[in-house]
Amino acid sequence: VTTIAPSQNAVFDALALKATIAQLPYDISYYKKTGAATFKQYYTQALNASAFSTFGTARNTSYYFPYIVSKTTTIEEIGMHLTGAGTAGSVLIIGIYDSLDMLPNNLVLNAGTILGDSATAQLITGVNTILTPGLYYLYINHNSVANITVRALSGSAVINLGHTSSLGTTSITFFTVGQIYSGTLPTTALGTLVPTSSVVPALYMYFSS
């Protein structure tokens, strides 16, 4: 058996290519690429697969949905799928809060608004926010007189925040607070949190790293 060693130039070329690849931005969707096309993969708060349902969100209500971040990551897009439109001209605002003692705390991201009067899947792009490991709360509120219906996750697919009574069987899946929609988000979560046991409105997120 004859073994032919690679030429010096071939070795240098391989090392140069490796160094170039190492400097490229990391794209977690790279493995889903076919040629120049990328098949984006979006994530929700779900911890396991479960059938979707729907949930009617009321106006002037702050909703806080728990979400666990297990590694430092950059969120690029966030949005919701509205299945039932609200009042004409209404908007729905989306944000993210960090947590303190398992409860919503400080504002991390004011992502902006989507149309409340359009029963479509809508995304806010260019979010570009880094989230470090920890418990966060995805936030929504809106000003529609009519309820806005959105895609929702099964209560068995999301984080259990505890139970509504000692040794109880009813799990808390998110919190709400009555708060007049103002078009902005408070820097700190306000009001008395009301524990809720229900299906959980789904927020869709795309991460770049």
Topology overview:
Elements lengths: L7 H16 L9 E2 L2 E2 L14 E5 L3 E9 L3 E12 L6 E10 L2 E13 L5 E4 L4 E3 L2 E9 L5 E6 L20 E5 L15 E3 L3 E2 L2 E4 L2
Antiparallel strand pairs: 1-2, 3-11, 4-10, 4-12, 5-8, 5-9, 5-11, 5-15, 6-7, 6-10, 11-14, 12-13
Note down, in words, how this protein is organized.
By secondary structure, the protein is mainly beta. Helices cover 8% and strands 43% of the residues. It has 1 helix and 15 strands. It has one helix spanning 8-23, and strands spanning 33-34, 37-38, 53-57, 61-69, 73-84, 91-100, 103-115, 121-124, 129-131, 134-142, 148-153, 174-178, 194-196, 200-201, 204-207. The strands form 3 sheets. Strands 3, 5, 8, 9, 11, 14 and 15 form a 7-stranded antiparallel sheet that branches. A hairpin with a 2-residue loop joins strand 6 and strand 7. The model is unreliable at 14-26 (pLDDT under 50).
From the N-terminal CA to the C-terminal CA, the straight-line distance is 46 Å
Q: Please give the radius of gyration in angstroms.
A: 22 Å
The total of beta strands comes to 15
Q: For this entry, what is the oligomeric state of its chains?
A: single chain
Which structural class do the helices and strands define? mainly beta
Overall residue-averaged pLDDT value = 86
**Main sheet attributes: strand count, strand direction, barrel closure:** 7 strands, antiparallel
The number of helical runs is 1
Beta-strand content bin: 35-45%
Net shape? globular
SSE string, helices as H and strands as E: HEEEEEEEEEEEEEEE
Low-confidence stretches: 14-26
Estimated helix fraction: under 10%
